[in-house]
Amino acid sequence: MRSILTFGAAALAIAVAAPALAQTTAPAQDPATSAAAPAAAATAPAAVAAGQPVKDNTGAVIGSVAEVKPDATGKSMATIKMDDKTFAVDVKNLAVQDGATVINATKAEIEGMLGVKK
């Protein structure tokens, strides 16, 4: 039971801390010129996927994405394995940069949320 509460607390804390990395939006375009641009030119942001390394907000690799799947409500969740701990984060609160999933917290902050004692 304790691990479920820790897991939930960590997921909540990270969800609150990470909105800055949620998703980027494309700059606004002039409607008169946007029709001239081909639709294929638009690219979607890279998706969080199992196997990607996970970097903290300092750029250090802290773990990897174990899996990505919907939770009971249908929200897409990424399970992140960091050392011997795992926790889940809503993929909306993660970014993908240079082939790695990025979380907006340091490893020490995440460990604190998970209750890891040193």
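(the above was protein one; protein two follows)
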Amino acid sequence: MMNEFERLEVWQRSHQLTLMTYKATKLFPNEERFGLVSQLCRAVISVENNIAEGSGRRTKKDFIHFLYNSLGSLFEVYSMIRVCNDLNYISNEQVNDFNKTILSVKMMLKKFISALSSKV
């Protein structure tokens, strides 16, 4: 099936992070539309898209590669969330919500990578 990745809890949580990000960036200044907003949205969507793409790959080794790409994008998101907070585009409360979700996705990705790696 095409949507098997949607059953993965890590993909679902990553999707929630994407929706959080898009909602938060709607309130950013217009001058950030092609800068920080664009970069942040590309990075956050990359987290869930790499999970989806990897799930469709032929081998577990390929899937693991895409999960590592997802993890890298997640760290980009974390970094940019700090910048957004430093520029007062998002509140401390929003940062806490983002950090909880980012940490959750990070832990899920690491566990998933570990589980798949033990089967390679």
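Reviewer note on protein two: The radius of gyration is 15 Å.
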